[in-house]
UniProtKB/TrEMBL annotation:
One of its GO terms (molecular function) is RNA helicase activity. Keywords: ATP-binding, Helicase, Hydrolase, Nucleotide-binding. Residues 2-30 form the DEAD-box RNA helicase Q domain. Belongs to the DEAD box helicase family. The keyword Cytoplasm does not apply. Residues 397-425 have a biased composition (Basic and acidic residues). It comes from Sphingopyxis lindanitolerans. InterPro entries: DEAD/DEAH_box_helicase_dom (IPR011545), DEAD/DEAH_RhlB (IPR044742), DEAD_box_RNA_helicase (IPR050079), Helicase_ATP-bd (IPR014001), Helicase_C-like (IPR001650), P-loop_NTPase (IPR027417), RNA_helicase_DEAD_Q_motif (IPR014014). This is DEAD/DEAH box helicase.
Amino acid sequence: MTTFNDFGLHADINRALAAKDYTVPTPIQVQAIPPLMKGRDLCGIAQTGTGKTAGFALPSIHHLLTYPHRATPRGCRMLVLAPTRELAAQIAQSCRDYGRFTKLSVSTVFGGVPINKQIRELSQGVDILVATPGRLLDLIDQRALRLDDVEIFVLDEADQMMDMGFIHSLRRVAKLLPSRRQNLFFSATMPKEIAGLADQFLNDPVTVSVAPQATTAEKVRQQVTFVEQKEKQALLHHVLKGEEIDRALIFTRTKHGADRVVRHLAGAGIQAFAIHGNKSQAQRTTALQAFRSGQVRLLVATDIAARGIDVSGVSHVINFEIPNVPEQYVHRIGRTARAGAEGIAISFVAPDEKTYLRDIERVTRTKAEPVKLPDDFNEMVRSLPKPVQAPRNTGGKGRDPQRQREDAQRRKGENPNRGPRREAPAGDGAQPQSKRRFRPRRSGVGAHKGAVTRVG
Ligand code: AMP
């Protein structure tokens, strides 16, 4: 079995890996790290959750340490482009973690936040810059950033970039990069148009891909119940009472929705933790540990927060709200039925979610078994215990940011509960609003069966 020591990575990187308790490289890391250490270009067909970030970050950090020199002012030595702020921040954090025993500098730039601080941060130059394309080009246009000294260029989640309309930005970036550089290109799917984009960036690349996940959907027993949105909580109580659940992951689309589910369950004396982007790292870690150790059987999560959650023994995945991106569904239900175990995925589908369900069935080529509401469901809805109150905070440090936003909305006379706020990874602030929404993918995925991947 390959271990991290076999790669010959810089000692400071190995220290960081030990600190993170990484011992065995994931399949994508086994495939990608050796050719990258040799300076080859790489085309990786892999999705978030496979360990691809370390797959590209470790050999890149190794390169930066092996050939040490200062970044030029307003320049960067390694550029990583990601489609969303969430992902950019996550990648930057991983780079900081893996480079924590080094002096390498890591910066993140994305839209939707003031640009001046970013301009200042870049003025001295940085070793690793993680950016979304729109803000990157803004900074270049303002002469706050130049790309002529980039040694390593990484394009992450290329298919999502295309879906979000970044193609022109990417073409522009390609022209600004120096011709001598190492290129890494990652995409969950590789339809023709993405392969064409890859050709523009890559030079004699090694192609690596991790085992397709589409079969997962076939291994999981999938059920669907049609129910009004406002009655989903009663259905959840019913399901939790009736099913033999070892460990269940409950997915909501919004952070607020996740908290609401937890409060409702608490009202009925059922313990659950929520994990989402508004929780502090400490809260997330506590929740995950409690779930992992079996201390709490229910974890309520949003998609983004659930990335990277890999807990064995999840018997049920409950889609309290179903995702509007079909791959997300595959990703969710892939958390159960691991290592040959039979998992159950139960989806609660409100009338306005039926089109999402159709998209999912088309992409996964499976059909969930319909399960009717129980006969006495109306009575269950009526007798549903009240949720516990959300903790009232008086403000200041540690105050729930979701709550702060809602209070601000109320002060402006807006209704914060109007319409579900999706936890779509906020895209690049430079994009038109309409492009920033999560939209179901209509191309690519279906055309490329089996392209959604996971660590085995
Ligand atoms: P990624 O696909 O890069 O987003 O990684 C998914 C998750 O797996 C992240 O939480 C990583 O910290 C974690 N991870 C990546 N590589 C390893 C490894 N070799 N061993 C354990 N965890 C890992």
